[in-house]
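Q: Mind making up any chain with structure tokens?
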Amino acid sequence: MSTTMGGAKETKNLAGSRAKRRARVAWAFLSPALVVTAFVALYPLVQTLYLSLTNTRLGSEEPARFVGLSNYVELVHDGFFLDALLLTVLFAVLTVILELALGLGIALLLDARFKGRSAMRAAMLVPWAIPTAVSTQMWKWMYNDVYGVFNDILVDRLGLVSEPIAFTADPRTSLAAAVLVDVWKTTPFVALLLLAGLQLIPRELYEAARVDGATRLQAFTRITLPLLRPALLVALVFRTLDALRVFDVFYVMFGSRPDMQTLATYAHEILVSISDVGYGSAVSTAIFLVIAVFIGIYIALFRGREA
């Protein structure tokens, strides 16, 4: 009996030592990647946080001084920053909702079996493959009130409006114009992520639901959506990250127009045009905090649903 217990204990110790040895080997292989990640991501973040606590300004003859939280206090009372924050959050909410809804519909369509499905999947990725600056400039030309294709259709061909609309110049249509560009470009990316999630769902579940008399709507709400939740979370996080730090769409379409500045374009103006590194770093840190709040809310909601 004692011999058996001693052998079992020795086997357990041997397994534990092997696990520790494998863990050390794994960390040894991971350490170069971790060092590179820390240098590329963590160091700039810490440096930006430090600069946000100073009054550093490029080209200034005076040495930089530590000013504490004064830059963040100024942010709270900065009307341009608050307007940029509101515009960025509104843009993110609108684009993420539309892209998730359209992306899910496209993913469900491409998940079905029909002739030409491979060609459809390839064609779907064309908008996403075009560089954002190029696609935005293309849409800006189409929005033009003199030679744009949209005004040609609305005014000359269909007669729905009596005079051309300056989509990018009119404050009433500027945000919608930017939202449409982003939705057109990035919906294929969301559809691709959700399509990958759909293909992981076992077909046997749908067959069993069909045998039990479940309708398509019931199968969608009871099988598809719950099992697609991880892919939805990934798509939601990625698209929110991109939408909250959007720069190229607004910069190409509106330049430095004060009423159409996002947090990223405002930070660019402060850092590059005004050369106020301290205050610009505070704006950049605020972008990071806003993104962290959104991601925290998403994770909490999804964990709550799973529980």
The radius of gyration is 26 Å. The mean pLDDT is 87.
